[in-house]
């Protein structure tokens, strides 16, 4: 991986400021690896490396990622998860929505500006392929962070599940007449920083900001640091009022930043424990180890203790209780509200699919953004986007409310591209559909990925304020407002 920095100096009044253009040259290549120590396999890598290089930038930087697909047998794309791509929707990456895939032997350049601080990640967004290895951290530093004087050093900690089989084979067996109940494939292992038995060397009496990213295909994890307390200060790029906790629950695609202060005594090392949420698994295979263990290492010559067993995970912090640092009030004037009823069901082929409003998503041959930009006065005609893209027409500046009712007995994380949403209400397990008579939060939690509880509901609001720069004179805002379920579910909608 080659990274180049070109400094662009801009004088404003009497103040001299600077921003950088950060360039990454990525060749998508196959490598071999055995991250869980149990099975050697080909992995999707970059420039012959895996784990993947970290993308780093500062707020205000321009980022250019030159991608050359040398995989030979896989088309691909990159999505920069959590970045709004304001004015550059065409750089967002999901195949069939904002771009065509990058075929083997071809290249694509992603070029965008970053205005958001926080913890993000990048991953392939084509044919569900990122769990085969094509995913890595993306960190945006903020010189004006409200917590910049509260910590001494930063660490990045990724969590993920790991499969020994390739994603195309797993997806094929998942959406199959032989799997009519829609049981998701169970991972073979859990990983920390793409390995097991991770050692995190720490100094005594030091406060770390630990950026935690769950890059999993499916499994949420409980995470805790034995003998230490965390303070949550950021989720999905949104600063929060500090919140103390002993444990977090982090779904696939979510991120947390926590402050952790080490002890003044270096005589002991402490286990860092991640536990996959087994409630997500229809059945638990014999011999599965759902846990992954690392250590905060104070003394590199000291013992590495086994983690203490837990009776339950009741200590996990409920992210719905977090308060955004800016205390943005609820969007109380909704311009457009609609319901999305989510379920898993079988079609005539006997296979199990994910549905929004009785439609399962089918990737269009022409990316939705291209259709919107080339259709001129027909861009507001829903039928041109295809009957199974779940398209909705949004006007620029509207406050949108999504009432999402889940009729599925499992937990599901939902992610919104191009925006963070306010979660103004979230139902409890088995509450059923939203009742429209609940008291809404006055200062709702915001993030870009929320988990909906089994057979329950969530009410989400956001402002459609992210038009593509090439659509400024169009009759509507061509906006990146793609909502989809994470995991093996394929329910997706497009906000046009």
Overview of this structure, please?
With 496 residues, this protein is mainly beta. It is built from two helices and 32 strands. The chain has helices at 167-174, 368-374; strands at 2-12, 15-33, 41-46, 55-58, 62-69, 78-81, 107-113, 118-124, 135-141, 153-162, 189-192, 198-201, 207-214, 221-225, 230-235, 238-245, 247-250, 255-261, 270-276, 291-297, 316-317, 336-346, 352-356, 391-392, 399-406, 412-416, 421-426, 445-447, 449-452, 457-463, 481-485, 492-495. The strands form six sheets. Strands 11-10-13-18-15-16 form a six-stranded mixed sheet, with no helix packed on it. A six-stranded mixed sheet has the order 12-20-19-14-17-21, with no helix packed on it. The protein is globular. The protein starts with a strand and ends with a strand.
Topology:
Layout: E1 2-12, E2 15-33, E3 41-46, E4 55-58, E5 62-69, E6 78-81, E7 107-113, E8 118-124, E9 135-141, E10 153-162, H1 167-174, E11 189-192, E12 198-201, E13 207-214, E14 221-225, E15 230-235, E16 238-245, E17 247-250, E18 255-261, E19 270-276, E20 291-297, E21 316-317, E22 336-346, E23 352-356, H2 368-374, E24 391-392, E25 399-406, E26 412-416, E27 421-426, E28 445-447, E29 449-452, E30 457-463, E31 481-485, E32 492-495
């Amino acid at each position: 991986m080659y990274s180049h920095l070109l400094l662009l100096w801009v004088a404003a009044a009497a103040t001299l400021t600077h921003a950088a253009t950060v360039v990454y040259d990525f060749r998508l290549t196959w490598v071999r690896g055995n991250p869980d120590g149990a099975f050697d396999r080909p992995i999707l890598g970059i420039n012959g490396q895996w784990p993947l290089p970290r993308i780093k930038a500062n707020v205000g930087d321009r980022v250019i990622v030159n991608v050359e697909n040398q995989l030979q047998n896989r088309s691909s794309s990159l999505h920069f998860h959590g970045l709004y791509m304001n004015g550059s929707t065409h750089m967002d990456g999901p195949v069939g929505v904002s771009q065509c895939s990058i075929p083997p032997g071809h290249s694509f350049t992603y070029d965008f500006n970053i205005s958001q601080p926080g913890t993000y990640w990048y991953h392939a967004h084509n044919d569900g392929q990122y769990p085969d290895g094509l995913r890595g951290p993306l960190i945006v530093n903020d010189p004006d962070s409200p917590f910049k004087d509260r910590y001494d050093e930063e660490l990045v900690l990724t969590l993920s599940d790991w499969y020994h089989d390739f994603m195309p084979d797993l997806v094929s067996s998942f959406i199959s007449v032989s799997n009519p109940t829609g049981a998701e494939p169970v991972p073979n292992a859990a990983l920390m920083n793409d390995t097991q038995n991770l050692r995190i060397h720490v100094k005594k009496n030091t406060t770390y900001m630990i950026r935690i990213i769950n890059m999993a295909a499916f499994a949420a994890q409980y995470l805790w640091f034995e003998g230490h307390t965390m303070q949550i200060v950021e989720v999905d790029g949104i600063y929060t009022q500090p919140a103390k906790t002993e444990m977090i629950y982090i779904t696939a695609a979510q991120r947390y930043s926590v402050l952790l202060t080490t002890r003044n005594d270096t005589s002991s090392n402490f286990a860092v424990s991640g536990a996959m949420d087994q409630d997500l698994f229809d059945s638990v295979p014999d011999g599965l180890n759902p846990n992954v263990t690392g250590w905060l290492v104070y003394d590199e010559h000291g013992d590495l203790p086994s983690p203490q067993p837990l009776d339950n995970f009741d200590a996990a912090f409920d992210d719905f209780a977090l308060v955004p640092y800016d205390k943005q009030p609820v969007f109380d004037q909704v311009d457009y509200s609609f319901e999305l009823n989510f379920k898993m069901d079988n079609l005539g082929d006997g296979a199990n699919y994910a549905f929004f409003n009785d439609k399962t998503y089918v990737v269009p041959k022409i990316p939705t953004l291209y259709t919107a930009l080339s259709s001129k006065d027909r861009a507001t005609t829903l039928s041109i986007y295809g009957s199974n893209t779940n398209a909705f027409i949004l006007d620029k500046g509207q406050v949108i409310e999504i009432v999402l009712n889940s009729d599925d007995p499992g937990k599901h994380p939902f992610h919104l591209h191009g925006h963070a949403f306010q979660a103004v209400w979230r139902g409890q397990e088995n509450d059923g559909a939203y009742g429209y008579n609940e008291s809404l939060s006055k200062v709702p939690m915001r993030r870009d990925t929320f988990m909906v509880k089994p057979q329950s509901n969530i009410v989400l609001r956001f402002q459609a304020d992210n038009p593509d720069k090439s659509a400024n004179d169009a009759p509507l805002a061509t906006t990146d407002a793609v909502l989809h379920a994470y995991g093996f579910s394929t329910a997706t909608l497009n906000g046009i």
